[in-house]
């Protein structure tokens, strides 16, 4: 019952994901961070099979870092999205990854952007988007309350509305969520929304 969603505001982009690691009817942990920091100004939120999600997102992260190391300049957000889409398209014809991605970033001359990439390698630049069962509720809330040029406070308030709706309406709702933001100051963790504390230890970054 995964949920990943994101939106673009005035000078920033937000990505939100549930933090449940689930297999069949078992919850293995509730502090799994599904939003990877690709580089200083990019976030990659992923949903899908846990093995595919971990392997593919790490592969993209290391290749983005390799490009910057070789060329001395980072990939733009659009270039990183197109590279990710290309790798998914190549794998689709060999050994597909069952992973859906929201890629957010901030570029100096362009500003914030958000890209939707699904497991069959569709790529779209969007203002707001979501994956997983929670998308039925988060997309509905964003359709109603989202507007361009939102402040950080307005965006976080909308995120909280989405989380409340998911928790109250989804039959097997994830209890905890992590919120990350990317803007001119870089990509970073913004907040956690927890209703269950994981006894195995604190969240790892």
Descriptive account of the structure:
There is one protein chain. This protein is of the alpha+beta class and 205 residues long. 33% of the residues lie in helices and 35% in strands. The protein has 4 helices and 12 strands; from the N terminus they run ββββββααββββααββ. The protein has helices at 50-71, 77-92, 135-145, 152-169; strands at 3-8, 12-18, 21-23, 26-29, 35-39, 42-48, 99-107, 111-117, 123-126, 128-132, 177-183, 186-193. The strands form 3 sheets. A 5-stranded antiparallel beta sheet has the order 10-1-2-11-12, with helices on one face.
Write the layout of secondary structure elements.
Elements lengths: L2 E6 L3 E7 L2 E3 L2 E4 L5 E5 L2 E7 L1 H22 L5 H16 L6 E9 L3 E7 L5 E4 L1 E5 L2 H11 L6 H18 L7 E7 L2 E8 L12
Antiparallel strand pairs: 1-2, 1-10, 2-11, 3-4, 5-6, 6-7, 7-8, 8-9, 11-12
Helix pairs in contact: 3-4
Task: Give structural attributes.
205 residues; alpha+beta; 33% helix; globular
Instruction: List low-confidence stretches.
Output: none
Strand adjacency order, main sheet: 10-1-2-11-12
Q: Could you state the order of secondary-structure elements as H and E?
A: EEEEEEHHEEEEHHEE
Indicate the structural class.
Answer: alpha+beta
Overall, the morphology is globular
Structure summary, number of beta strands:
12
Return the average pLDDT rounded to an integer.
92
How far is the N terminus from the C terminus?
22 Å
Number of helices: 4
Cα-atom radius of gyration: 16 Å
Strand content: 35-45%
As a percent range, the share of helical residues equals 25-40%
